[in-house]
Amino acid sequence: MNMPSLKEARKRTNKEVITEKYKKNKELGKTLKNKTFHIKTYGCQMNEHDSENMIAMLKEYGMKEVEDFENADLIILNTCSIRENAHNKVFGMLGRIKHLKGIKKDIIVGMTGCMAQEEVVANTILNKYKWMDFVLGTHNIHKLPEIVEISFKERKLKIEAPSIEGDIIENMPADRQNKYKAYVNIMYGCDKFCTYCIVPYTRGKQRSRNKDDILKEVKDLIKEGYKEVTLLGQNVNAYGKDRKDNYNMANLLEDVAKTGIERVRFMTSHPWDFTDEMIDIIAKYHNIMPSIHLPVQSGNTRILKLMGRRYTKEQYLDLFHKLKDKIDKVAISTDIIVGFPGETEEEFDDTLELVNECKFDLAYTFIFSPRVGTPAEKMKDDISIEEKEQRLYKLNELINKYALENNKKLEGKIVDVLVEAESDKLGYLMGYSDTNKLVNLKGNEDLIGKIVKVKILEAKTWSLNGEYVE
Ligand code: SAH
Ligand code: SF4
Ligand code: F3S
Question: Considering 109, 143, 160, which residue would you say is the last residue of a domain?
Answer without folding.
Answer: 160
